[in-house]
Design goal:
Blueprint: H1 7-20, H2 29-63, H3 72-120, E1 125-130, E2 135-138, H4 140-146, H5 156-160, H6 165-176, E3 180-188, E4 194-206, E5 210-220, H7 222-243, H8 249-262
Antiparallel strand pairs: 1-2, 1-5, 3-4, 4-5
């Protein structure tokens, strides 16, 4: 901003310049001296006025708060630091997800291993059949009871025989959802020997209606049935004699105790 453009200053300088031109014909020396004195005083006052203006402007400029212009370099560095922080946070989250996924896989593997151990060491036979009629699992006890090996991933009707009683029960469970508890069925082993099996079968469901498979528990009742057929007549005979007062009470009690121990 130029202070010479100030109207008062411009007018003052114009008046001073007009008075600096001496008259062509001064009337007297005293007038010229007075005019020169006025001119010097006017110039001094004008210089003092301009200097005062300049000093006041300098003070205002010094006291005015300076707003720093944004630096392009600082903005770029801030953006780079922000992006780096976001990337690092995403990496940390990815590592945490990988850790949790690994823990979940280990937990699932341990649960599966525990289930396999329980199934393998069950005293009763266990067959798992899916909705398509494929045997998905058969523990060692089931293979021993059925006297068959390699039951896994075979169709149950083909492995057990299409007309066997066990096949019919499994079919009714898979198609109709029928539950069978403590049923006794005959099974003919591969060597032609007949076995009496005790079976419990119930459906595996997804939701209320969808049947996803069948679970079958089975045990061999052949030896137990033979023991009952041998022991029971003797027990009944001795107990009958005891009740009729033929003096065989002690023998009856001993036979009864042995019969109970055999079951």
């Amino acid at each position: 901003m130029s202070y010479l453009a100030d109207p008062s200053t411009t007018h003052l300088i114009a008046v001073v310049l007009q008075n600096t031109v001496p008259p062509t014909q001064p009337k007297n020396p005293m007038g010229s001296f007075l005019l020169l004195a006025v001119l010097v005083v006017a110039l001094a006052w004008a210089a003092f006025y301009v200097a005062r203006k300049l000093l006041r402007h300098g003070r205002e400029e010094q006291t005015r708060p300076v707003t720093p212009a944004p630096s392009t370099e600082n903005s770029s560095a801030f953006m780079a630091a922000s992006m780096q922080a976001v990337i690092q946070k995403l990496r940390d989250q990815e590592k945490e997800l990988e850790r949790l996924h690994k823990l979940e896989k280990e937990r699932a593997a341990q649960t599966e291993k525990f289930s396999e151990e329980v199934t393998r060491n069950m005293p009763a036979g266990l067959l798992l059949v899916n909705a398509a009629g494929i045997i998905t699992s058969a523990n060692p006890a089931a293979e021993q009871v059925l006297e068959m090996r390699g039951l896994g991933f075979r169709r149950y009707s083909e492995a057990l025989g299409p007309n066997s009683d066990l096949t019919k029960l499994l079919g009714a469970c898979l198609t109709k959802g029928v539950v069978f508890r403590r049923e006794q069925v005959e099974h003919t082993a591969s060597k032609g020997e007949a076995h009496l099996l005790g079976v419990t079968i119930w459906p595996a469901r997804k939701g209320a209606d969808q049947i996803t498979g069948a679970i079958c528990l089975l045990s061999d009742l052949t030896e137990l049935t033979k023991s009952r057929a041998i022991v029971n007549p003797r027990v009944y005979r001795v107990m009958g004699d005891a009740l009729m007062g033929k003096g065989r009470t002690a023998e009856a009690m001993e036979m009864f105790r042995k019969a109970l121990d055999s079951f």
